[in-house]
Amino acid sequence: MNASSAPDIAIAIPDGYKITRKDRTNQVGGGIAFIYKSSINITTSTEDTLIAAEHMHFQIHTDPRTTLRGTLVYRPPGPSALFSESITDFISPHAIASPYYILLGDLNFHLEQNNDTNTTTLLDNLANLGLKQLVNTPTHITGHTLDPIFSASNHVSFSHSTEIHWTDHRCVHFTFRRKTHHPRTQPIARRPWNKISAEQLLSTLNHNQPAITSDANNAALRLTQWVTNCADNLAPLRRHPSQTNARKPQWFTDALKNSKRTCQTLQKTWRKEHTAENMSALKNATREHHQLTRTTKRASFKERLDKNTHNSKELFNIVNKLSNPNASSNSITPSQELCNSLATFFHRKITELHDSFGPQIPPTTTELTASAVTLNTWTPISAEETKTTMNTIHSSAPSDPCPYYIFNQADASISPYLQTIFNSSLASATFPESWKHAEVNTLLKKTTADPNDLKNFRPISLLPFLAKVIEKTVNKQLTNFLEDNNLLDPSQSGFRANHSTETALLAVTDDIRTLLDNGETTTLILLDLSAAFDTVCHRTLITRLRSTGILGQALDWIISFLSDRSQRVYLPPFSSEPTEIICGAPQCSSLSPTLFNVYMSPLANIARKHNINIISYADDTQLILSLTKDPATAKTNLHDGMKDVAEWMKLSRLKLNSDKTEILILGNSPSAWADSWWPTSLGTAPTPSDHARNLGFILDPLLTMTKQVNAVSSSCFLTLCML
Questions:
Q1: Which positions fall inside the Reverse transcriptase domain (predicted)?
Q2: What is the pTM of this model?
Q3: Cis peptide leading into 380, omega within 30 of 0?
């Protein structure tokens, strides 16, 4: 392209379209053109310089809040190393400016060839910025992929490519979908708790208190009815249409509220009189409102970050909300049909998995050495402990008669009654029936997942507030007993004080580095289990608790806690019929993780019996074994050890996924591994990987941490884009 070709190009542009061009200045012909529909608001720039290529930056303003930014690039054929190295620094300032960024054009790289050094360098450098190559088909008549689309956004997707008769390149189509979620209004029954003062609440609760009874079931029902009656008097249910997913953000100040009202008023004025003056006033007010919104949001999040400098949990929550703004949004339309379908799906999934193990075989009592110390009864719970525990729980279930903060405000009135219920429950080894029911909410596993596929939903159990209070106090006593008497295996890092995924990863890498320093090639096996918590066999768990020393009333209370549980799917205002829970450790329970650790305890002894080192975090289990020190013995240990582990899993009714189990060979002799080492009863041996993700950390064969650093770099870059 050049200045003299302008008339010819103008003829080629369809009606209703515009062109922005950058002509090649150092020779005749060539350049970049951007043709777009006239109705689309687009701005372009070519100010900076890209080494060994031509480019044009563009911004497509889809709405006042969303801008699709991108860079159109043409790299002529020729040496590519310089371009691969320089592209990162060139586009990073532009990519960080928006979460919706794309890099596209004709790069003249054979992007389908993963064995090409320059191609690999280019892909790795762009991956460090979070950019993924989306085009998965050839774009040139020679069968090569020369015209890529790189993006980090889930809203950008490759569509297809079409052949064009006048060029040897194919036309690449992509889609940018920016969905604006408008929550549908549903009639919801709510109580106006915010209009109740603490004095009103205490006064009402102190009136007509129920008689205290030693029957835990009856006492729990009376308490619920007592609080419900008080709620009916103070805050009767009001049924009104409400946006089910709408919540006013913390940063939405009164100034923003007034600014929004001003815009709405000017909009109404303009609709009545379509004058240039009214339109100008509306545009100015809207522009000021958007600017105020951005400023207020930044100030609000900065203040929250400054306040929580030493609170890592809250910092993670803030950053996650900034980097994944749609992560918590469940873009589904509640219905009775969906509730019933999800309830059936969740129940059938676990039932079929449970039944797949065949007839239940009574567990052996020799898995664990019988404990010399025992726990026969639970220590009564004091009023102070009840109050302290209540203040640590900040969630409620729909079945609760009032929110958690109302319970905490009324602790002076109800703590004595609660203390009586809790201690009656412990003394009689009876967990109240009304506290065994879970309300199940759901979330899409990914915001881009298909909501029509039930497999994409994750169940979230909501347990009664008071059930969590007594569970937490019992769990504290059980944990103290297990830890004080060293009854939990030291290789287990899950759900234990002073343990975390970090301690598990440190143990894994330390063991592997020790073997590598000795010149030994090592195998790391990452076992994959399906729904491990949900398939826990209650009979087997009880047997292992007995071996651990949990006896008498203490064990009977846990048996009552596990038995006759139920759940229903609740998507306001709809709910399914209750379904029975036949197995598993109750989801979202404070006590379940500790019970699961006891359940998994025998596995470590089985691995060590075959000289296999084991490190666990809950159901994530890693097995480590040297392959080169004594290959013949190592082969026997691995073969027999995996066979025994698989058999123990089956007896424990835990589903071991051999096809998802990963193997990583670490060291300089990857050929030390042979498929014949794998038990044939477990199916086809897994193929060793060039890297494996273990507890969120990427390990490579030489522990160089290169892939982990690149992944962190990419993640940080995406987070910076959102910030």
A1: 424-699
A2: 0.74
A3: no
